[in-house]
Amino acid sequence: MSDQTIHAPAGTAHSPEVRVNKHKADWRGWKFMWPFAVVFVFVFIVPILYTIYISFFQKKMIGGTKFVGVANYVRLFHDPNFWSSVGRVAMFTVVQVPIMLFLAAAMALALDSMKLHGTRFFRISTFLPYAVPAVVSTMIWSFMYGAKYGLVASINDLFGTNFDVLVPSVLLASIGNIVTWEFTGYNMLIFYSSLSTIPHSLYEAASIDGASEWDIVRKIKLPELKGSLAITVIFSIIGSFQLFNEPSIMQDMVPGNAITTYYTPNMYAYNLSFTGSQSNYAAALAITMAVITMVIAYIVQLKSMKEQMK
Amino acid sequence: MRNTKKFIASAAAIATLIGLAACGNGGGLSATVDTDTANAKGEVVFWGWGNGIKETIAAFEKANPNITVKYSSTGTGADTATALQNAIAAGKGAPDVVMLEDATVPQFVVDGSVVDLSQFGADKLKDDFAAGPWAKMLQEGKPYALPIDSSPEVFFYNKAVFDKAGVDGEAIKTWDDYYEAAKKVRALGGDYYIANSIDYQPFLAQVWQAGSQPFKVNGENITIDMNDEGIQKYIALQQKLIDEDLINPKITNWTDDWYRSLGDGTTASLTIGAWMPTDLETGAAAGKGNWRVAQLPQWNEGDEASSEDGGSALAITSQSKNTAAAYKFAEFLTHGDGAKVMADHGTFPATTKLLEDKDFQSKKNEYFGGQQVNKVLVEAAERKVSAFQYLPYNPYAQSKYGDDVVPAFQGKKTLKDAIAAYAKTLADYGTDQGYTVTVK
């Protein structure tokens, strides 16, 4: 914006009149900005401020709404249900994200190797699960998982085994499988697009210099993937901390209430506000989760930036 | 830049204003309740669910050409209660007439979201309804809703499976008989069980039948007693069934698995409300001809104790601008000619007139092998019901039942501990909501 005048070529910039300009209100920029600014304020800033605002209140069935200060946050801090849900999604993230990104990277490298037939078909078919709404894919998978009437039941019948992938001990892995199925293609596409920016002359030059296919992958392709890796990791962390659709659809399909009302932080917030009418407490939870997620995403980003600087 | 600061300040001010406005109209009480039903006209917005509603509305509009009913199917009882709660919090958007599960009526009375129907003379209809459902509509002696159906807890069983197991369903008179039958059904092997793990509503209905009164609500005071004689009897029986693998922990009510197991008979019986026959016919069509209905087993031989499981009712919201027409419609559907239309579409009625109707009672049901199902259900509806109250935060209690109690059916903890923990959860929530809660 108007700052440009200050950084005008050296020598002329030393006159005092130019300095004054810096403090004079200049509305020209805002004329271009306002369509964005208005939308941004109303769909982004206002909801966040409102959420923060209501998180300082408590609505009681007896006594109505009262200002309670940070009491909701203090209570959240001591809420074992909340921390167990955070722990669950953290564990989910640590296990599921690396598996998914490894598969996505492997697929992208395979597609990019130009040694496969039907590249286009594989590219679109691995991406297709991402286009299926999460609700639908969760229902499809849940029906397959059924140990009594589902595909798992048929497999058990066929081999005389007794698998049940919906028992509480492996349930999180089963959900991870659905999420991996849904999002591997999406991440693959990000990796693939960054691989396709590498000029092919580089590969030719490398192979003339005697580099094997593995050397090309290790020395040219993988370094190129680093940048998109940071993005996919951050997206995936945010995504898995927001885990909601899959467990909440499965809640009604999994036997014995293995999915509790506080299975993930988002489910907990949802149940607090809609079955417990504690929307103020849920607002405190939402803000806290947003902060936790931002901090983690920021740390990951810092770390990856440092890596890239090397 | 200075204007940036101004910008943020004004944005914050707007946000605060919106926040204050949203908090301001929480209750949404309408100033006047129009009770002049004789001259009612205009539009009535109605939220509900279930069979026969559209036909009933058509009959109502024919009889009352000045009133039109705009119906939205809101899915299930829980969804409707959630939607209503949101409309109340927003201060607008609630319908004129809303269908509620009986157990959720108290909470909407407490926050003033539904109106006292005695203003319209509904208190005079007391004798026209069966005692069980009517009792659930009352808060401090005044009716706040009109019951659509009565829902005595009864015993459904799959006769084909029982025959194979050598059990006579008709001869199950006590819970001891039920336990013996459970062992024989389980002896069929495979996935055959007499029942699946108990859901929230059947749980309440069964402890109610055992004479327990877990919740006592008196204004702002709540007493939670999950340790009385009735509950202890219930726990002892269920724990025995769990320990001896006589109850299927892997199937939850209302799931696809549940309906399938009812269809193929691997879940061989149900203790559930009298509204179940239509659900069985549509959800478990494969079981046609095999199912029968009988009275609930008793805790003491010769007793005739009953209880209520579920049921729904119509209430008028305090946001309604057209209460007279709203009441007229609610009265028509529950008590007037509409009740008959509802009954013809599978609703098990709440009015004594329909319950005692000879044609209604003698109707044979092919799904139940030609049994005169209604006769059994009416007998259950007319049995004695002990006093019982729901918590004013029933949806919360229902969702937490799954967290706290259901794991006991999988043997993760004893039912006794689970129910004690559950009582504590409910008490904590009540205290948090401003009630004075006593736990016994």
UniProtKB/TrEMBL annotation, chain A:
Domain of life where this protein originates: Bacteria
Location in the cell: Cell membrane
CDD domains: TM_PBP2
GO CC terms in record: plasma membrane
InterPro entries documented for this protein: MetI-like, MetI-like_sf, UgpAE/MalFG_permease
Statement: the UniProt record of this protein carries the keyword Methyltransferase: no
Membrane topology: Multi-pass membrane protein
Keywords: Cell membrane, Membrane, Transmembrane, Transmembrane helix, Transport
Transmembrane segments: 32-56, 89-109, 121-145, 165-184, 227-244, 281-300
Alphabetical list of Pfam families matching this protein: BPD_transp_1
Family to which the UniProt record says this protein belongs: Belongs to the binding-protein-dependent transport system permease family.
Protein name, as recorded: ABC transporter permease
Organism of origin: Bifidobacterium ramosum
Automatic annotation (TrEMBL), chain B:
GO biological process: transmembrane transport
UniProt keyword terms in alphabetical order: Signal, Transport
Origin: domain of life: Bacteria
Record bears the keyword Plastid: no
Signal sequence segment: 1-21
Matching InterPro entries: Bact_solute-bd_prot1, SBP, SBP_1_CS
Family (UniProt): Belongs to the bacterial solute-binding protein 1 family.
Name by which UniProt lists this protein: ABC transporter substrate-binding protein
Organism listed in the record: Bifidobacterium ramosum
Phylogenetic lineage: Bacteria, Bacillati, Actinomycetota, Actinomycetes, Bifidobacteriales
